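Fold sample X.
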Amino acid sequence: QPIYQVEIEMSGIKINVEADIKAMSKHLRWSQREVIPKASSRALNDVAAKAKTASAKSIAKGAGIKQKAFKKSIVVVKSTWSKLTAMVISDRWRANLIEYTSTRQTKRGVASTAWGKRKTYKGTFIATMKNGKRLVMARKGSPRLPIKSIWGASIPKVFAEQATKQAMDQAVRSNFKKRFKHHIAFYLSKK
């Protein structure tokens, strides 16, 4: 029986230790039971970091985007000894089409694998901004200016897809007990 609970919501994944920790502490002496919240908190933070990595891999594969382009938009809210809950959430962030894999200029427009499928966006072009950054742009009308940025898949939307949720859930379930036991042993060795 798991000693933690995983809740997957639209905004992310929430991992917490169940309120009833008697099962965890029955093999420990009274003086050793104080290590449980400490070990639980560390284990939660470990698996939250693994869930973040798993979500980044899943999003990169599903959306066709490089991890480095969006990884900072996935945040781990760490557990504390007094609040045994860790969360992995994604903020509202979208990348310009240039960040997606295999984005190239063609005669008809820019071709990219954003949204997981290869597509040519008619009337788009790759422009180099004054700061040297390259972006995929399109004209708003017939004159040369103004131009607008062309965005790819919404990272929070891909983050909320079933494949990403399953990857995070698997990362938590396959690692929590091992990390919890490791941290219990560490704290008991200091007693």
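Fold sample Y, listed below.
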Amino acid sequence: QAFASAARCGGIWFVQVVHYPLCAAVTGDAALRYSREHRRRTPWVVVPLMLVEFATAAWLAAAPPPEIGRGAALAGLGLVCLLGLSTGLVQMPLHSQLGRHGHDHATIGRLVGTNWCRTILWTARAVLAVWMLAGAR
């Protein structure tokens, strides 16, 4: 769980600071191709980590070690669920819009702006997962 959360945290910071802002530099027909390739390639990297993160968070919430406690385990699962909701309800529709229309400063701006929520949540999630790992020793 700590590995998956830390990997997703590092990934989301890269996306927030480098990848999403650079989307604005891709214009014209290249923007459509870029967006479609992004949507095709990204799941191969993020979905396995997200599944591991969710499965381990659910497992810990169902049977938390005494050193961690149910509260921390439930908080971890809650963060994972919030991240899933944000991804599915906000970021994925924005990516779909870019995949249909290509370069759009307003959509890219919304993508960067709304992704700060995920960046903060995944940072908190990684810190919590590392804290739980240290406490379980």
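Sample Y note: The two ends are 14 Å apart (CA to CA).
Also: Residues 9 and 122 are 5 Å apart (CA to CA).
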